[in-house]
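Teaching assistant's notes for section 4

Start the section by putting this record on the projector. Ask students to predict, before seeing the second block, whether T9SS type A sorting domain-containing protein will look compact or extended. Collect guesses on the board.
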Amino acid sequence: MVKFYFTSFRKVFVLATFIVAGSLSASAFNSTTLPDTTRRASKSTVKITDTRKDRPSNTGVKINFVPFKPAELKPIAGSQGTPKTAAGQPEKDSKDNKVLTNLKVFPIPVDDQINFSYHIAKDANVTIKVMDLLGNEIATLLSQKMSAGEQLNTFNISSKLTTGIYFIRFVVGNEPVIKRISVL
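Reveal the predicted structure now:
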């Protein structure tokens, strides 16, 4: 059995040697073959044509696009100069742009009642929701349009919430604020 493998291996080895030697000897005597480094790339152009019977007559494609213009850069807070709007006017502080300010939730921890004190800069829809730790809505305390100015709301939550930690989500206009409370 060992001899069979040896003779088979020898036949394959002799055959491979013959093929390699034959290809080398043929290329050595062929003077028209150039090495790969000296071959020149042939330039060929291929044109693809549409041979369908019902092909569209207008084959040109026109694309109109507006070039990209980057927005005006504003300086980083704390750097020299005052940020300016597109009209060149000094930009107001970011606190002035907020609709909801001065939000206070008390008492914490909450027992029976919860109080909210906040200031609204302009008339807006106000939504106050209680969420659990997973983000599930437990109760909606308030959802109505409120006028600008100081607001004070009091809600009885003893029947709505059990002991634990909750989040209060305020949405005034498009501005959300989330506060954490604990209920006894």
